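Q: What would this chain look like folded?
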Amino acid sequence: MSEFENLIEKLLEQKPELTKEVVEEQIKQKKEKIGAGYLTDQGALFLIASDYGIALSEPLKIEISLKDLYAGAKEISLETRVLNLSPAKQFSRKDGSPFYLRTMTVYDENSTASVKLWDEKANLPGIENLKPGDLIKIIKAYVKSDLDGSPTINIGSGSNIEAANTESEIPTIDTITKDVSELQEGQKDLVISGIIDGLISGMEFTNSRGNPGKALRMRLKGKDGNAMRVVLWGKDESSIPNLISQSAKVRLLGVKVRTGNQGLEIHGNDATIIEIEGGKEVEPIIVRVLSISTTENDKRMITAVDNNKNIYNISDFANLTSICVEGDVVECMPSKVYGNSITLDEKSFVRKLDNDESIPSLSQLRTKINDVKVDGNYCIESIILKVPERREVQTKSGESIALSEMFVEDDTGQIWVKGWRNQARIIDKCELGEIVSITGLNAKAGLEGRIELFVTAFTKITKKN
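A: My prediction, written as structure tokens:
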């Protein structure tokens, strides 16, 4: 008699009014209700027994798979691979005594699960050295239901984690990595890959409990050319290299997909592992200043170009560029370079150089409207054909945000120039019939596939006489 049949017999002994056929039908119904991909026949049987107030004492087999997990299981052991690992955090119990907690995500052939390591287990010797894809054995753990109802493995005082040096059929990290273009809403515990698309930025905020928080934002482009917004909660710029080239390859381990204001988004947390092509050493760059604008916080935002016509967005947090005017050639030693985004701070330096004719001037760099391509950064000169118009746009979340837009043309074509939120006010100052020089525009595909130009934080509009 198999272990499963033995468990059915134990249930029928304690519940003689049931028949094997009735129990099998209840197992089928339980799996349909919860999802066959999340529950085995044996797992469903334990839940059914619990519904009748019966505790089946027969233990699960020593080695189980993640999809066999159910809340209430004790002393389980399994072999699995590490997906990601969070830092250990200290918390306080109700009596004020401290405890430590570390979370880990693991996976096998067809499932993933969260693992919680409590107290001294959060700082097991060698735990910090575990890498994504490492094969481990979890020994004598217990399973509880998490806040979302999913079974979570808990490593307490009687449990342990060991490195496994055996051959395994559990796929490697490379095997389970998905391209951004393959993602669908609701997926979680993913390993995804893509290409950096545009800026990487950090943000600080205050959460609903009044505590300070941080996040890292970027966009990743998939093999199909489409980009998706990424928000990594609890991460900041210390998690990534100081030097990241344009179109660098990225892999994120431990993220989920959800719907945001602008479609599907990728979300991670402090346990998410970020792998980005790049380095720590930043080289000085020589550029010509095309435009300088100042934010409400007096931060200088500069659009510049190098001798290969690469356009850069420079954020000056230390006012180092106060020695410069538009048209100057300068040498910068940035603190960070993310694609075409450059950061200057107290650790940076800027010095003026003699004019270098090999670096194009603004007049040489301007693009005709007919030559604008999606995803490019542009400077144009044009005449305003339509009075700038502001309206409020309602997002899916119910937020109302400002959008200003104007229609412009040059001798090659016509195009819409648009500004969202704070950038809307830049367009509001323009008037019908004015000839304007606009620097720092980003081209994106708009309605019906037509290209539109969008104002950024680096955009400057200069009116021509």
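The mean pLDDT is 86.
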